[in-house]
């Protein structure tokens, strides 16, 4: 069995190939049982989350990700996410590869957001604002830049020094990036706003979003979490990664649905419908679009298969 560490996982998942692999998986016939999602008490700190996410393509590959999210790890200068992906043969059950789960998660999450932006953002979008400066922030810049002609990149975080660190890393890769301290002003100017936080309270207000903006919501993966307010949801054309996940786990939609701010029919599509052409993406240049994701097991499977086939030269 081959084992990929963080660096090897990163090298095996170039952005264009990963985005295309995830698109193909959403368009294909992947089986995704309900994932296990458990709160774990951490005395004196915010609760952690423990996830197990299985998926398979019949006769080809089967895999499962075991992942933990510890929100207060920043206090220890540690990533919030740790995990491992186990990929097996879908014909024999033979274990094929173990992939570093944190890097796989970060890259496939950013790639899925970029894939959605391909359908939902303005095709001539020039400015991306990333809200949050954790592990995902640099990935989001790279992934979105691979599908759109972006020219300017801004990063906002509760701690300005964290945003400045991400901006410096982005500049080192050749991106015109800067940290910002005024979130409202940055949102009002951005073509795409991508949120990757662990916030429990809304950060982005709907009244700040300009006509034609695209709002990408990644972080609120539990019903108690929020990254945008009700006005943002009310104003937007809403799309999700999967109905099953986003409408039951993502607080940015779960709470407005419970409170009657929106109704189920306001959710226009899930990503598989967009990539298969069953539902339209952006049709109005002035519309505000919203993509809510909580993560789908098929994204991890797509990434793990890509990593396996690129590093071994083998296919199922």
TrEMBL record:
Its EC number is 4.3.1.12. It comes from the Bacteria. It is an enzyme of class 4 (lyase). GO terms for cellular component: cytoplasm. GO terms for biological process: carboxylic acid metabolic process. Transmembrane segments: none annotated. GO terms for molecular function: ornithine cyclodeaminase activity; oxidoreductase activity. Pfam families: OCD_Mu_crystall. InterPro entries: NAD(P)-bd_dom_sf, ODC_Mu_crystall, ODC_N. Keywords: Lyase, NAD. Belongs to the ornithine cyclodeaminase/mu-crystallin family. This is Ornithine cyclodeaminase. The lineage of its organism: Bacteria, Pseudomonadati, Pseudomonadota, Alphaproteobacteria, Hyphomicrobiales.
């Amino acid at each position: 069995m081959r084992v990929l560490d963080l660096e090897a996982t990163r090298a095996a998942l170039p952005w264009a190939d990963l985005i295309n692999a995830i698109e193909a998986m959403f368009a294909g016939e992947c089986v995704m049982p309900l994932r296990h999602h458990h709160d774990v008490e951490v005395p004196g700190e915010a609760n952690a989350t423990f996830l197990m996410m299985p998926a398979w393509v019949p006769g080809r590959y089967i895999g499962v990700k075991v992942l933990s999210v510890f929100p207060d790890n920043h206090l220890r200068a540690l990533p919030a996410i740790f995990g491992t992906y186990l990929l097996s043969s879908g014909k024999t059950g033979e274990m094929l590869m173990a992939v570093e789960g944190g890097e796989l998660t970060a890259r496939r999450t950013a790639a899925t957001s970029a894939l959605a932006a391909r359908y939902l953002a303005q095709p001539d979008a020039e400015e991306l604002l990333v809200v949050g400066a954790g592990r995902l922030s640099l990935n989001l810049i790279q992934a979105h830049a691979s599908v759109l002609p972006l020219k300017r990149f801004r990063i906002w975080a509760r701690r300005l020094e964290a945003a400045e660190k991400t901006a410096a890393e982005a500049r080192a890769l050749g991106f015109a990036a800067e940290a910002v301290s005024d979130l409202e002003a940055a949102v009002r100017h951005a073509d795409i706003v991508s949120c990757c936080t662990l916030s429990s309270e809304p950060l982005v207000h709907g009244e700040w979003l300009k006509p034609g903006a695209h709002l990408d919501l990644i972080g609120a993966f539990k019903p108690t979490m929020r990254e945008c307010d009700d006005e943002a949801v009310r104003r937007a054309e809403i799309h999700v990664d999967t109905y099953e996940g986003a409408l039951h786990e993502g607080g940015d939609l779960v709470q407005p649905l419970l409170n009657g701010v929106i109704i189920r029919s306001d959710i226009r599509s899930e990503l598989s419908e967009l990539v298969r052409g069953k539902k339209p993406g952006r049709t109005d240049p002035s519309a505000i679009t919203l993509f809510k994701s909580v993560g789908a097991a098929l994204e991890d499977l797509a990434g793990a298969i890509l990593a396996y086939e690129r590093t071994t030269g083998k296919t199922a």
